[in-house]
Amino acid sequence: GQQVMQIPQYQHVQEGEDFTTYCNSSTTLSNIQWYKQRPGGHPVFLIQLVKSGEVKKQKRLTFQFGEAKKNSSLHITATQTTDVGTYFCAGRNAGNMLTFGGGTRLMVKP
Amino acid sequence: ETGVTQTPRHLVMGMTNKKSLKCEQHLGHNAMYWYKQSAKKPLELMFVYSLEERVENNSVPSRFSPECPNSSHLFLHLHTLQPEDSALYLCASSQDRTGGADTQYFGPGTRLTVL
């Protein structure tokens, strides 16, 4: 079945440093979504990417969908303590199955 | 906050108990989901309902029994659970199950502990 892998599993950064998490699918995706889960909270939708090579920005967050539509990345510029949490990608394949990656837990030292 | 509510927020039960988790969405969505979140598998899809019809069941043990009486309500009935079933159970809804309308709106979750 479809597998969606995320790396790294954990990342510690100093406040102000950049952070990137990568998402890789075993199958071609029709779209990919990103979610953020704060500690003790629930996942909250951030963005959806649909087109090959698409790049979207939300303030300090940059999301990219690969040309082959099998991978994606989330980059945070100049992290802040409010960025702490676990970031999940979720890919939907042609069979309409939505699969979540294992998440990347981001910790930011002030 | 997100329009999806879950009760109870915390539940402790013995292995012989029967309990139910409740989810309600106030967003007018057509699809509802149950997820299990644990340290071993961060977000594991359990069941999907679309217009009250179950469309996906990801090989979940029969001790978990979902019920969707209408498009706004979803239940998860629990019986004879095992300690390894302890986890955060998240309910979610989406406008539809397919296409670009499948953004997941999650509820706050029920933290379940099985003794």
Main attributes?
A: 110 residues, mainly beta, 6-stranded mixed beta sheet, 5-stranded antiparallel beta sheet, 11 strands, B: 115 residues, 7-stranded mixed beta sheet, 4-stranded antiparallel beta sheet
How would you portray this structure in words?
- The complex is a heterodimer of chains A (110) and B (115).
- Chain A is built from no helices and 11 strands.
- Chain A is mainly beta and 110 residues long.
- In chain A, the strands form 2 sheets. In chain A, strands 2, 4, 5, 9, 10 and 11 form a 6-stranded mixed β-sheet that branches. Chain A has a 5-stranded antiparallel β-sheet with strand order 1-3-8-7-6, with no helix packed on it.
- The model of chain A has no long low-confidence stretch (mean pLDDT 94).
- Chain B is mainly β and 115 residues long.
- Chain B is built from no helices and 11 strands.
- Chain B has strands at residues 4-7, 10-13, 18-25, 31-37, 44-50, 53-57, 64-70, 73-79, 87-94, 105-106, 110-114.
- In chain B, the strands form 2 sheets. In chain B, strands 2, 4, 5, 6, 9, 10 and 11 form a 7-stranded mixed β-sheet that branches.
- In chain B, strand 5 and strand 6 form a beta hairpin.
- Chain B is globular, with a radius of gyration of 13 Å.
- The chains are: A mainly beta (110), B mainly beta (115).
- Chain A binds chain B through residues 31, 33, 35, 41-45, 48, 50, 86, 88, 90, 92, 96-100, 102-103, and chain B through 2, 41-43, 45, 56, 90, 97-98, 100, 102-109.
